[in-house]
Structures are given as C-alpha cells and as structure tokens.
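Hi C.,

You asked whether I'd gotten around to modeling the 539-residue construct. I have! Everything is below, sequence then structure, no commentary in between.
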Amino acid sequence: MKQNNICFDTLKKECATRGLDPASIPSFKHILDTEALTARQRKHAEFIGAVTYFFDKFIASLPGIPVLATATDKHGYVLHMIGDSGIKEMVAKLGIRNGVQMTKEYNGINSACLALDYQQPVGIVGSQHYHHYLYHAACYSIPIRNRTHSEEIVGTLSFMTAAGFAHPLFLSLLMTMKESIERELQLMKQNETLRLLNELIMDTTTSGMIISDKEGNIINVNEAAEQMMKQDKQSLLSKTAADCPFVGDYLERALSEGLPSTDIERTFKSTSERETTYLLDALPIFDQTEKLVGAFAQLRDITQRKETEQMLLNTEKLAAVGQMAASAAHEIRNPLTTIRGFIQLLQPSFSDQGHFNLVLEEIDRINLIISEFLILSKPQATCFGNQNLIQILHDTIALSQPQASMGNVQIVKHFYDSSDLFIHGDGNQLKQVFINLFKNGMDAMPDGGTLSVDVYANLHGEAVAVVSDKGAGMTDEQLGQLGNPFYTTKKDGTGLGFMIIQRILKQHGGSIDVQSRKGEGTTITLRFPIKQEETIEQT
C-alpha cells in the first residue's frame, strides 16, 4: 500500500544506517514504571475510555477477523491495548506492552511513529516492515487530535492483525473511529468546561439554586439553597421536585408542562419570626434537540430590597404627614392663642383659682401636643441647657398621674441619687420622651398595674432612666420593627411616637435599649451623658 510522502525503501535504509538488525527483535529503551504509567493513563482517561467504547462498537463490523487495538500518547508510549487475546500474547512476547515507548530509532518502521511523524493515516503490511518478525503482521495507525486545543495531537490509535487479513477497510474504519473519538473528546471537554462553569456559578452566587433531572429527582443544589431551605445538601438530594420546599410546585410545572415560572414572590418566616422574601424562577431545561432533560429553580433573597421599598414608601408618607401636621398646627394654634388670652382676661371671674390654673395647663398641653406634630414636618429650634433629669421626671410623673389614676396604674419611682442629676438637653423634648414612654407603659396595662421609674448614675458617667411595666410585652419580631414609621402594636396608634423618641435621643447624644417578653412586660433603659459639675457652675 502506497502512503503519501512515505517511501518504505528510504525508511529501511535509515534503519540500516542506525545499525538496526532486521533479523533481531529490538528492545525498548524507554519503559514507564507502574507509577508513571498510572499517571499517564489517568491523564488520558477520557481518550482511553473513548477508544474502548468505539472499538467495541465498530469491531462488530469485522466478524471473524482478529484485531488488536492499541492507544499511545503523543510521545509514542503505549497506554492501552484491547482486542484479540492471541495477538496480545504474541506481541507481549516481543516486549510490546503498556508503558513501552515506540520509537523509530529503536523499533524501526512502525505505524504509530509514522502516524505521529507524518500526521496522517499509515498502513504497513508484511514486508513493508523492517524487522522480519513483523512480516506476518499488518499494522494501521492514525493520529488523534484534540479539537479544542488548536488541533493538538493527543496520541495514536492503531490496529494490528495478520497480514492475510490486510485490507484498506481498516484505514477506513480507523478514520471513522477517529472522527467519533475526536468528537467525543471535544464533547467531554465542553461538558467539563460547562460543569466547572456551573460549579463556579453555583458556589459563588448568593441565589439559591436547585436542579432536577427529567424524572424530577433533585441532582444538585448549592450552599445558598441549603441555607434558605434550612436543610443540608444530602437531605435535599434525596428528595424529588415535588417534595422540595418552596419550589416544588413550580419545578413540577416546568417538568410536566415545559413552561417557565418567573419572578414569583414567596415570603417565609424564619425561626426568629423575621419575614424573608424570595423571588423565584423555575425553568425547564432542554438539550440541543429541544428535548426536556430537567428543570432549574432559582431563589433570590429580595428582603432588603423590599425593606428599602417600604422605607421609601414610609418616607413619602412621613413627608405628607409632615405637611399636614404643619398646616394643622398653624390652624389650631391661632384660635388656641385667642382662647388662652380670653381665659386670662376672665381670671377674676373664676371662683376657684385652681380651676383657672388647670384650664391654662391643659391649653399649654394642647400646645405641646401640637409641637409634637411639628417635629414630623421640620426640625424644631431647640433650647439646650443644663437640665435636672430628676426634676424633669418629677414634673412628667405629675403630668401623667391623672391618666394613671384613671387606668388604675400605680407609678412607683426609685431615684437613687440626690435631687440633682444634670444632663445637657432641651427640657420640653425630654419631657415629651418620658410622656410617650409612660403612656405606652400604661396602655400596655389596660387592667391596671405598676409602672416603675428608676433613675441613677452609672460608673460610665451616664444618667440612666429605666421605665418598666408588667404589661402585654412584645415578640422578637415586634421588637425588631420598633422605630419603623407607622409600625404600631396599638389598635389606634400611629407608629410615630417611638420614632420621635429615637430622634430626640440622637439629638441629646443618648441611647435607648428595649427588652421585652410576650406576656411579661417591657423594660426601656435610657442613657444620657451626665453634665460635669464644673461646667454647670461656669454656666
């Protein structure tokens, strides 16, 4: 058989020049040890697997013909031998086995080396070999390329049979196997790239991902999905799509109807009673032939986005309420000033001076409430100075006593310091803070109870005021919502009082801590920096 650019007479002369004896059986100079051979076989496992698969498939077209197939790497090392056991035993006696390197320098004319050198199919039959012991053999080889790496040579695939069975069909069969093996290697590489890319996406994304096969068995989930579903990966992999929490109905729809479900909002409560909102997508997966092969679900945590949207909505509400409050305060204050003036003119006609003082106090209190509304509309001019916290609490308790008496609430005060505990602040705003806290405490005890007010100075230079009730208390979820505009636990509440308290405390450099248990009551601790005595004296 003539080969393109191959002259066997010239090759035989080259073998003679190298000193090769055609009557002898040449030895192999380079032989891999077990460890090195195993490493190369592992490196070329996909190539060896493809050779094995397609040899078993195509050899059926050659019934009754003994064929040995051999795979080598691009350096000529034999990696795998499969096929006729008789030929395998014969070549083993000649020293040809896994791990030996086929070279033209030591092995003369052989099809594997020629296929690598000329990078084309090669057939050597009978006397075309240099060594006499191969005259009874027909050998065919073809180079195998890696199509994903610029047609890089991976190795060779060779057929060996008896010279009596020589036929061009072997080269045609090798060409067919070459195409199949190269496509398979390319597909394996693409699948591996996709697998690595999928793993990278699955491992790095913050979205929860769940993948099922076409039968509905969960085949992969990522760490984010484990956390969202409060289950480990092994537990989820043992489930079907129908049993998968949150997404089961939508995965089943994708598998049964081939229809996607996108941007589905699902809200769940965590163990801490905090609501978490997810955006769910469930999509069918099709292969290149548009055949359904599985389904994919994705969960995106949009809780923070929803909270931001709610905050923006509340901000808009606050702006509207602020404008209304400013308008209402203006309209109320004008007639209120007139009423107060006429009451003062009528002072001599009051038979009881105490009634006169009470009317003026209530008018001033209305004015104070109006000022509270104005805090919502714009920052108020404050009058900061040295304020005696204990005196402020005495005054505030006195103001709240009538409401406490009506509600059968006893206000118990424990002032552990002297009558002077100075802080820097606005007296009216501080009174407003405690009025709101006292009112909240009394509202929490509709059937009456004890409201405790404790005041002391701690070791950190802070004035501490503690307001405690034995009322209904709050859950962890309710505590987490405190301070949000328009959030209230009261039937007729506005959800603005606590927000105003926080704003005033921030202006005063103070802090607030709320501890509450459902059914046991609430304890609120306020801390203010104490005004130093020398500063007070200078003032």
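If it helps when you're writing up: Residues 534-539 have pLDDT under 50 and may be disordered.

Thanks,
B.
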